[in-house]
Amino acid sequence: MKKFAALVLMASFAGSAFAAAKCEPHPKDKWIKEADFKKQLEGQGYKIKKFKVDGNCYEIYGKNKDGKKVEIYFDTVSGKPVKSEIED
User: Fold this and answer.
1) How far is CA 50 from the centre of its chain?
2) 30-61 tens-digit pLDDT
3) 61-71 as b/e: b if 16+ CB within 10 A
4) Topology of domain 20-86, CATH
5) Bridge partners of 63?
6) Where is the PepSY domain (predicted)?
7) pTM of the prediction?
């Protein structure tokens, strides 16, 4: 039973390692418009499968210009990536 409890505890810590990015909070009226930001990313070669607001970040799931799967969090004002996971 102790081994099971340890595994559950380890799994809960492992899940927190992939927590969402911490983007700076900005007033909503300062954010890049979602449609404009999507167009900007598509112009850089991203194929966006899913676009969403996650807290104070824009988040995309899709593929980059090299066809690799990506999950990227962006600052809503500067548009700079805050956290990214790119398939090897």
Assistant:
1) 10
2) 999 999 999 999 999 999 999 999 999 999 99
3) ebbbeeeeebb
4) Nuclear Transport Factor 2; Chain: A, (3.10.450)
5) 47, 69
6) 4-85
7) 0.76
